[in-house]
Amino acid sequence: MERVFLYDMDRVLLIFLLLANLERDNITYVTYEGKEKILEKLSGRKVILEKSKMYAKNPKFNRFKMSSYIGEIRGELAPLLKRIRKGEAKLYGMDNLELGKRVFYKEKIHVIEEGTLNYMPYKAAPKKWKERIQDLIAMIYGIGERKVLMGYGDKVEKIYLTSDLCDKIPVGLEEKAEVIDLKELWKSKSENEKQLIKEVFNFNDEIFNKVSGDTVMLFTQPMSEDGIISEERKIELYEKVIDKYPDKSIIIKAHPREKTDYSKYFPNCYVMKEKYPTELLGVMGIKLDRVITLFSTAVFGFGKDVAIDFYGTEIDDKLFERFGSCDNIMVRNAKL
């Protein structure tokens, strides 16, 4: 049986690699220009779509131009689409981004959880009359998109939810949801598969030299880069935060836009330069005790067993002046 994976997001790729048998399965990976590098070490067929055909410059006002591009892509992928429709290949990925929503919109799909978004109430947005007319014209030309997303559509065969996030299967998904334990899937992998997954995500074993026992992850923010506070003040704030956890191993996850070299200031912490999904830490046996932030939303989605320390903008007058209270994100539960 062939598996076809739509690669949009690293976290979903990791879950798919844990679900698939990387030594025996015949896998076709589909993505678009600019996303293909991470797939280089994986065996199997790679289908790289032209990015210009994935996105019109302004989808809101160029919907038919975009639909024309999607029609061209589906024409090029006709043999693959036929194998999926005949049941010779199974489709995996997300149904709410361009690949699953528009390119593979007619095909049955196995949806993979992308994060906390899968547990938010979902209701298809009502269409305005102009959009209804556009839908009708597009349908006449054999072009369309998935209307019901996040696993609820009738063309979804199964949705995989992770035990870390799934307290309860969302209403309406009970019949097609399968709750999976990523750690158990990792344990079932052969040593060759484990090594391949580590290579795909450039996992650095050095982390084991600095992290042991109870571990916390600090998510930093580009406050000095954005000119809100000075670099010195930013480091001072994070020093005070880190001092609150003297008996913990600390991983620092810097924001992608930051230029600060945190390893210079916090040599006893592991400063994470890799960009792999944090779920990989869990399957590798690094148990996060809690996640910490001033007011970044990146701390959400780690599961029910990981505590959150949210310090809030009240930690600094300039931050509070710029952003106000972040109680709408989370009521601060930690103070210096």
Describe this structure in words.
The chain is of the alpha/beta class. It has 2 domains: 2-200, Rossmann fold, CATH 3.40.50; 207-323, Sialyltransferase, C-terminal GT-B Rossman nucleotide-binding domain (Rossmann fold, 3-Layer(aba) Sandwich), CATH 3.40.50.11110. The protein has helices at residues 10-19, 51-54, 63-76, 78-85, 98-103, 129-140, 182-187, 191-200, 207-210, 231-242, 262-265, 279-283, 317-323, and strands at residues 2-6, 26-32, 45-49, 89-93, 109-112, 156-162, 177-180, 215-219, 249-253, 270-272, 288-293, 307-310. The strands form 2 sheets. It has a 7-stranded parallel beta sheet with strand order 3-2-1-4-5-6-7. β4 (89-93), α5 and β5 form a beta-alpha-beta unit.
Largest sheet composition: 7 strands, parallel
Note poorly predicted spans.
Answer: none
**H/E topology pattern:** EHEEHHHEHEHEEHHHEHEHEHEEH
**What is the gyration radius calculated from CA atoms?**
22 Å
Shape: globular
Enumerate the strands of the largest sheet in spatial order, edge to edge or round the barrel: 3-2-1-4-5-6-7
Task: Give the domain tally.
Answer: 2
How much is the average pLDDT? 90
How far do the termini sit from each other?
56 Å
> Multimeric state of these chains?
single chain
CATH architectural designation of the largest domain: 3-Layer(aba) Sandwich
Number of helices: 13
The CATH class assignment of the largest domain is Alpha Beta
Helix content: 25-40%
Quantity of strands, as a count: 12
In CATH, the topology of the largest domain is named Rossmann fold
